[in-house]
Amino acid sequence: MLGLRSCLTRVLAARTLAPQVCSSFATGPRQYEGTFYEFRTYYLKPSKMNEFLENFKKNVHLRTAHSELVGFWSVEFGGRMNKVFHIWKYDNFAHRTEVRKALAKDKEWQEKFLIPNLALIDKQESEIAYLVPWSKLEKPPKEGVYELATFQMKPGGPALWGDPFKRAVHTHVNRGYSKLVGVFHTEYGALNRVHVLWWNESADSRAAGRHESHEDPRVVAAVRESVNFLESQQNMLLIPTSFSPLK
């Protein structure tokens, strides 16, 4: 009996002292809520951009009747040309499944929206992402331009790099160099990928803020800490379309 008690004491003590890894960047709470965002990127055939956007504008109501469009942008700078990027919101995966089923039965959407647009698209990409727990989707105060900054982090997940990344983002926000729209962590697509959506009044104001931040010791220190966990990064300058909810 004494041997058994001694063994149990050692086991319980080990459990008590075992380190626990926590991160405010973990997406658990958002996944529990269910709401997620689908990031879609369409690469259009050369010379077909205007035709695609005109048809989308004319018939977008047929698509938004089924689910919420967060924003729709043309890509001005960053990567391949003739590219559009859009974000759709879903309550959960069951909601998205029902939307896709409804679209498959919607003849008007297929004839006026889907079929004409498919002929103009060269390539499509899709990612599923959650807002991180410390970020909510913000609406900018007026029309402007957007920057989607994408960070490919080292394997290990938010428990490894979440806190330094959060500090880097908040330092930029607190210093007023740009307005944060939302921070997203991928669930499907490239793992350990974070998308940060920023808003600025113009491309020039964005450039001015970026130059100032490079000379800000607080920003420099926060960024240096986060880049230790970074594998690569890229960005795109996005111009909202006339039918985009986010302007």
TrEMBL record:
<dbReference type="InterPro" id="IPR012577">
    <property type="entry name" value="NIPSNAP"/>
</dbReference>
<comment type="similarity">
    <text>Belongs to the NipSnap family.</text>
</comment>
<dbReference type="GO" id="GO:0005739">
    <property type="term" value="C:mitochondrion"/>
</dbReference>
<dbReference type="Pfam" id="PF07978">
    <property type="entry name" value="NIPSNAP"/>
</dbReference>
<dbReference type="GO" id="GO:0000423">
    <property type="term" value="P:mitophagy"/>
</dbReference>
<feature type="domain" description="NIPSNAP">
    <location>
        <begin position="37"/>
        <end position="136"/>
    </location>
</feature>
<feature type="domain" description="NIPSNAP">
    <location>
        <begin position="146"/>
        <end position="245"/>
    </location>
</feature>
<protein>
    <submittedName>
        <fullName>Nipsnap homolog 3A</fullName>
    </submittedName>
</protein>
<dbReference type="InterPro" id="IPR051557">
    <property type="entry name" value="NipSnap_domain"/>
</dbReference>
<dbReference type="InterPro" id="IPR011008">
    <property type="entry name" value="Dimeric_a/b-barrel"/>
</dbReference>
